[in-house]
Amino acid sequence: MGDVRVLRWAGPAVLLVEVVLVAGGVLSLGSAALLFVLVEGLLALTVAGQLVAARRRYRQARTAGAEAEAALGEALRTVLPGPVAAAVHHELRLWASLVLLARRRRHGVPPGAVAIPYHRDLRPMAVTFLALTVVEVAVVELAVPWTTVRWVLLVAGVWTLLFVAGMAAANVVRPHVVTWEVLRLRAATFADVRVPLDRVASVAVRRRPAPDRTISVADDELVLGVSGSTGVEVRLTGPTTIGLGRRSATVTAVRFAADDPAAAVRALRAAADLRDPR
């Protein structure tokens, strides 16, 4: 990552040094131009090497069984600083969610799996934000008299509109998923955790309040709430370590929101071969 930060500033730094040297009479203009071209050529070769490394990391991750999106994230972290890689990865997944929604497809729902939607309570907020963004774009177009400023604000407004639409789409096309091996819990592109079904002891419909965060861990419980509440409670057979992206947590229960908690419970019981306690 340090090499990438050096590459980012190397070109401008060389140019600045050459301007100073030319102004001081140390270098001629022709020599400075030749030196700059040579340095830029070396930087281009280095960047090409970074791209090859990213491609290699992507293939390694795919070979190890990672999904295409996860492999892309690994590749981006190979050539970009951590926060930049995370931001670019997040943006690309939002665009992918818009494409999936337009094609009426869902991400990460294999044949035979059961999708558990959770976006119903989020829809009013998404529609409100989309409407406000459209109004903002229209106001900028009509009220700002300076062409350059208007175009800058228009581009920013359209980007915001697509970002909000991508968030709304991600909530729809990335539902929770139950397979015969794992319960996959998601929150748009912000959270993606897997709970092994062989660690599930019981499942019940139980509405409880949740923190105002996408994902949280408290009192040995992993919580993914929507609109401040959860509707499904999963008790585990014992302390279980769950991966949370770049970190992990050991919990004894998992709570999450679902549009139809009863249907979610039935799907989990069937997949985990659990009996209804009633």
Largest sheet: 5 strands, mixed
Give the helix/strand class.
Answer: alpha+beta
Distance between the termini: 56 Å
Helix content: 40-55%
Report the count of strand segments: 9
Give the amount of beta strand, in percent.
15-25%
Helix and strand pattern: HHHHEHHEEEEEEEEH
Strands in their spatial order, largest beta sheet: 5-8-9-7-6
Average pLDDT confidence is 81
- Compute the gyration radius: what is it? 25 Å
Number of distinct helices: 7
Number of domains: 3
- The geometry reads as globular
Features:
9 strands, disordered N terminus, alpha+beta, single chain, 3 domains, 4-stranded antiparallel beta sheet, 278 residues
Molecular structure report:
The chain is α+β, with helices and mostly antiparallel strands. It folds into 3 domains: 2-80; 114-173; 176-272, no CATH class. Helices cover 54% and strands 21% of the residues. The protein contains 7 helices and 9 strands. The longest helix is centred in the N-terminal third of the chain and has 35 residues, at 29-63.
Outline of the structure:
With 278 residues, this protein is α+β, with helices and mostly antiparallel strands.
Which SSEs are present, and which pair or pack?
Blueprint (H helix, E strand, L loop, with lengths): L1 H22 L5 H35 L4 H12 L2 H21 L11 E3 L6 H21 L3 H27 L2 E3 L3 E6 L3 E6 L3 E10 L6 E3 L2 E4 L4 E15 L4 E9 L4 H12 L6
Parallel strand pairs: 7-9
Antiparallel strand pairs: 1-2, 2-3, 3-4, 5-8, 6-7, 8-9
Helix pairs in contact: 1-2, 2-3, 3-4, 4-6, 5-6
